[in-house]
Design a protein that fits this description.
Elements (H helix, E strand, L loop, with lengths): L12 E2 L11 E2 L7 H28 L6 H24 L4
Length: 96
């Protein structure tokens, strides 16, 4: 009887959105092309695209003397949310 080598254990993938109560959600699979993985890839691409757009908007607002403190606070909140998304994506891809 020959022994088959054990497959490499699947590495949990941090998904781009939190689960209930804000807790991290993970995908555990040995497939890179599954439905949930592809969906997560799409969500991550959308989030990163929104980050790029928000950065362009922020640069324009920061240079506009007509922008008031309320608008800048709202911008700061949106930038924080976008940065949190980007950090979650980086962690999910194994960076840190």
């Amino acid at each position: 009887m020959t022994h088959q080598p054990h497959p490499e254990p699947a590495i949990p993938r941090l998904l781009p959105s939190a689960g209930s109560g804000g807790k991290p959600s993970y995908l555990l699979t040995d497939r890179d092309d599954g439905y949930v993985g592809r969906y997560a890839d799409g969500v991550e691409a959308l989030q990163l695209g929104m980050c790029v757009g928000l950065l362009a908007h922020a640069r324009a607002m920061i240079g506009d003397p007509a922008v008031d403190a309320r608008q800048l606070r709202f911008l700061a909140e949106q930038l924080c949310a976008a940065l949190m998304d980007a950090v979650r994506i980086a962690k999910g891809r194994g960076a840190g």
